[in-house]
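--- STAGE predict ---
source: upstream dedup step, 1 unique chain passed
mode: sequence only
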Amino acid sequence: MKYNLRILLLSTLLWSLGSLHLIMAQTIKDDRMLIPMISANLGYNHSTGDFADRFGESGQVGAGFMLKFKNNILLGVEGNYLFNDDIRSDDYYKYLSNEDGFITNIYGEVGVTAERLSGFTVFGKVGYVIPVLNPNPNSGIFVSAGAGLMQHKIFISDRYKNIPQLSEEYIKGYDRLSNGLMLNQFVGYMFFAEKAIWNFYAGFEFSQGFTQNRRDWDFIEEKKIEATRLDLLYSFKVGWVISLHRRMATEYYYY
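--- STAGE serialize ---
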């Protein structure tokens, strides 16, 4: 009797493990479906091309929305704000300075000015996750490519609003606002945990902006600037991803 009971208990245990095995496999299969996600990111940009003639190294902060499909293809949109205080082109300051090298205000005193990069990128992208280096089939090497808009300018601040040469009416003649088509590529790693808030990606991003000055007149050049630009950014980027899916898979399929 005891022997038969042991056989029954063992059989029940084996059947339960087999059922759990199938449930886990099915859960993983279900999790490899459409996954909507939102992200926030930070980046450090190295400037090259025409961008480096005007601005030094810069930072970026941004947000995005992506859809990850069952086949690990991703579609998304993203926007980033570009910023720094390293302005390499101070032509406007030289142009407005007096013989002592200062910009004066309406009181004949030294005016207080500041300048910085103010820009943004916004683009759509398509990517793919190669499931390696993690038992979760949603994690892996992440590559993407995209296209959109890049815009930047020299943001010039008249701190006390008492420099006539930098009034709102004239400042557009110095800020060299430029924008145009941007192409974008990314290669890195995307990680998904079982809990939706512990997801991230990190890697390197490459951006090429085909921009042009959009002001009708440049006071320094004394003409409209017509030349096209090639603005290049090489960036290290990390992002925090919040999945809107109920849970992530944590194992491969079982066979």
